[in-house]
Amino acid sequence: MAMVDENGKVYEKEIVNFANDNSSKYIIKKISEYIKAREDRVNFVGIGVPGIIKNNRIVYTCNLSLEDPNFVKKIHTTLPIKLANDALCATIAEYKIIDKCKYTNYALVTLGTGIGSGLIFNGKVYEGKNGYAGELGHIVIKKGGIQCNCGRKGCFEKYASVSRLLEITKTKSLGELFTSMDSSPELAKVFDEYLDDLAEGLANFIMINDVDMLVIGGSIAWFGDRFYYVLRGKIASRLFNRETNDVKLKFAKLGNDAGLIGASFLDSM
Known about the structure:
Elements: E1 3-4, E2 10-11, H1 24-36, E3 45-49, E4 51-54, E5 57-61, E6 81-85, H2 86-98, E7 106-111, E8 115-121, E9 124-126, H3 157-160, H4 162-169, H5 174-181, H6 185-209, E10 213-217, H7 228-236, E11 249-251, H8 258-264
Parallel strand pairs: 3-6, 7-10, 10-11
Antiparallel strand pairs: 1-2, 4-5, 7-8, 8-9
Helix pairs in contact: 2-8, 6-7
């Protein structure tokens, strides 16, 4: 949670650990307390949620118990509130703050605990009729594969999320992984196989949407210079024209604050 000004600068950020209690009731309580203490300095509340949002209501969340149609009404404030998918919030932040809205069609993919994405078509946010647009993590890349929390098997995020990467490399952090790879050919091989799965899903995404720019966000973006050209080549090899230069790909710049910043701009998109 944070206050954000019109230029995207973040103030008074507070991080809450929901490991012991991720119930809707507790999350609403913490959000309400934060807003109440700052209500006289704020004119809008934006909230990013890892799930499907429709008509400002939470329709479905895969990893948090937030499926409460009255979620917004239970937050104790008179300020206007708008909900959006968290990956879409990050997309808006990078689009407005970093890229200054210069692209017509734009997408961002977040790699973290799961995989999400946000879409901007013709300069406007695209969420789809039912709010499903951008649920990239739950396209199936391996039929009958690993069981996903969403109920399907073989979902993209079960093979290419950061959580999965740390699991298969048996490392505790991305920093440890990239440091260890320098002296471990075995680890480098596992990472290369991970990039194959990542490229598979991203190539599908590009084939469907053909955006002007695809941005990769999440914690892995900080290490992007270690594998950018390899990943771009793997994606290009899966596209019709197979031209590496046609893969318009880059890494996000705003880090973990992207979702906060993008949520603050929901009233302007």
